[in-house]
Each structure stands twice: as C-alpha cells, then as structure tokens.
Amino acid sequence: MEVRYHGKAVAKGSLVASTDIKPFRIARYRKYPSNIADDKAAQLCSLWQARLGDSNWYPFKVVHCGADEERRGT
C-alpha cells in the first residue's frame, strides 16, 4: 500500500492479512456451549493473530526420539 500526496509517495506499508475466525468458531462450538463459543473463538483467533505477527514464534516443536525427529503442532 502506498499513500500519495500531490503525486509524491509519503508513506509505504503492507497490508497484513487478517486471520479468518470461521475455523476457530467451528472448533469452539465443538468444545463449548453456544453461549460462550463465540467469545472463546474470538479469544483464540486474537491469540493466533498475535502469535503470527511474532517472528520468533514457531508453531511446531521438535521432539527428539533417539535418531529420529518428530514435529508436532503446538
């Protein structure tokens, strides 16, 4: 995204894609009653958005099992 003022670029940036709440809502409706599922879905979606914005966060952990490595989602 680029903002122009009288033909000159004054600010540049990129748009960050937002996280879709629908999969979180589906998962929360399976686990919680419907009266609190939407709140839980919004909380979980916000947590994932924050984590995805953190460049140090890695969504998998490596488990060493002897000579083999296994990746598991966190």
UniProtKB/TrEMBL annotation:
Any GO BP: gene silencing by siRNA-directed DNA methylation
Top-rank taxon, per record: Eukaryota
InterPro entries (alphabetical): FDM1-5/IDN2, FDM1-5/IDN2_XH
Domain Factor of DNA methylation 1-5/IDN2: 20-69
Protein name: Factor of DNA methylation 1-5/IDN2 domain-containing protein
